[in-house]
Amino acid sequence: MLSRIIYLAFPVLLLAGDSLMAQRFPPPPPPGDLSGTYVNTSNGGTCEVYREGRDYVFVNENGTPARFRFVGPGRLRMVAGDWNPTIVATVGVGRDGRPFLRFQEAGNPPGYWVQQE
After folding, report:
1. What is the pLDDT of residues 49-63, one digit of tens each?
2. Is residue 79 assigned to a domain?
């Protein structure tokens, strides 16, 4: 009888444990407005991000602009500009609470921009 109770209670405890951990450590909320000055972590260059309508314009350290639009939660895709059109940008929040942008293009390691304080 005791083994049957343990057998039935075990899956419930596992599910409850997962939900308790999810409530204890929620992911940080995404930043509201991405506009601001960023630093390209691979070369220390200064980059800018500003909003135009529902899009964001990213200007890299060389002064080359590209227009990005949200295509999903925390994901932006390039819609215009002179950058590689396969680039996807992901928005995140670092341990220090500052927003960062992760740029991924096929065949290359990701690049990161971190918002300046």
Report:
1. 999 998 999 999 999
2. yes
Q: Is 78 exposed, middle or buried (0-12, 13-18, 19+ CB in 10 A)?
A: buried
Q: Is 47 helix (H, G, I), strand (E, B) or coil?
A: strand
For residue 80, being part of any structural domain is answered with: yes
Token output for 112: 């990161």
Q: Torsion over CA of 34, 88, 53 and 46, rounded to 10 degrees? A: 50
pLDDT of 61-115, one tens digit each?
A: 999 999 999 999 999 999 999 999 999 999 999 988 889 999 999 899 999 999 9
Angle 18-19-21 from CA coordinates, rounded to 5°: 65
Task: Residue 108: give the domain boundaries.
Answer: 36-115
Integer angstrom CA distances of residue 98 from 8, 16, 64, 82, 84: 45, 32, 24, 27, 26
